[in-house]
Amino acid sequence: MYLHPHPIQPFPQMETTTQSDIASIQKVFLNHQETALKWRSSTLEERSARLTKLRTWIKENQDLIRTALWEDFKKPGPEVDLSEIFPVTSEINHTLKHLKSWMKPKSISTPLSMIGTSGQVYFEPKGSSLIISPWNFPFNLTVGPLVSALAAGCPAIIKPSELSPATSDLIQKMIRAIFQEEEVTVFLGEVEVSKELLKLSFDHIFFTGSPAVGKIVMKAAAEHLTSITLELGGKSPAIIDESADLNDAAGKLIWGKFVNCGQTCIAPDYLLVHEFQKDRLIMELKVFLQKFYDPKFEGIEKSPDYARIIGPRHFKRLCGYLADAVSKGASLDFGGKTVESTFYIEPTLLSNINKDMEVFNEEIFGPILPILTFTKIEEAIALINSKPKPLALYYFGNDTQNSKKVIEETSSGNVVLNDCIIHFLHNNLPFGGVNNSGMGKAHGHAGFLAFSHEKGVLKQRVGLNNVTMLRPPYGIQAKKIIQSLIKWF
């Protein structure tokens, strides 16, 4: 049952951090370390039971999830189902289907130089884990990593974002209803809570957020040599080649950009369109904006299917980007309307972009779409390569040679051909960034591995020793054998 839009009310505020919250962190962490030792030998049945309980709660409380996300930033019900609930339940289903094979030790081949031995790789839970999640997909990007942690056999402490208080509060209630405190714990509060958590020696940290904060998290992890997964962001480009079907591309781009009001880490940040196609593409983009968000010609502001900006800080930041671009000569091809009282920013198309504009240099993370042009694919590739490596790269076109060049001559977390953002839902594809857009992978088997230590185990036969003749004192025969090993193996 979907929520019906109602008048915009003031956004809820999260309570400030209390000293008792901070004082309890150390105690909970120590309990989690004890749980990690107990869970190290956890069985398939035990892990599956935890995941099944989580899935059951989600399916039985979908209305609560929709309500929370509506309260936080007016996210439409169907959008919640598609981008928050479905990815998590799908991830759980996929994990339950494959967890037995993931957990099973993998036998490896034996090189001739090690004949007589056998080797296996065991997948050991890393131990106590910390999940710090963002506000833009607050349910999905919190519970998704938790699925991977539980699958790998790791207890987790979760710190959700204070900018999405209704959803964060619901996540805490969900976790308390399903798990014991020493298994999974949620700490709410401001940045001070995150700072306290990052002082602790977790066995793995999974952080989703901006590159700037990612550096802070990575520095804190380095103090304890804690392994880390960083899911960050960046300026993800979309190339629309001369061979592209513009009608097909426009519909996919509008949905991929403006779902969640553009507050998506893998949303197309800017378009690179062949100069001969620019005007027609803008026309097609306008058609789909009208079709998706204003079919009755009442104004997009009245659309029940268009979300809002999360809060005042990001609203002001985006309005600043827009004003900066227009003042420096950008053409406002669509949109531009803003309403501060409701944090509404109309879907906006900008062209005539130059390198001095903030929308050219900063990750936008909102409903503003700059459109740049190129004449040769090499120009588009060069522009992309002049910026930090993006989380995603999209190519629209039917020129196999050009698409091959884009894949091979650029670096990004993922590449999607003739669509955008849907790769997030592909459980068999590793998801993640590279360098400035992140490190480590998530989803499916990659997520399981993120929270697992791959432990090599070698077994030698009793009474057999491959290196008997290679022990001191090193005689002529030993030296010959060593040289043979160097030459042939």
TrEMBL record:
The active site is at E231, C265. Pfam families: Aldedh. GO terms for biological process: aldehyde metabolic process. Gene3D superfamilies: Aldehyde Dehydrogenase, Chain A, domain 1, Aldehyde Dehydrogenase, Chain A, domain 2. GO terms for molecular function: aldehyde dehydrogenase (NAD+) activity. Keywords: NAD, Oxidoreductase. PROSITE patterns: ALDEHYDE_DEHYDR_CYS (PS00070), ALDEHYDE_DEHYDR_GLU (PS00687). Transmembrane segments: none annotated. InterPro entries: Ald_DH/histidinol_DH, Ald_DH_C, Ald_DH_CS_CYS, Ald_DH_CS_GLU, Ald_DH_N, Aldehyde_DH_dom, Aldehyde_DH_NAD(P). One of its GO terms (cellular component) is cytoplasm. Residues 16-455 form the Aldehyde dehydrogenase domain. Belongs to the aldehyde dehydrogenase family. This is Aldehyde dehydrogenase. It comes from Algoriphagus boritolerans DSM 17298 = JCM 18970.
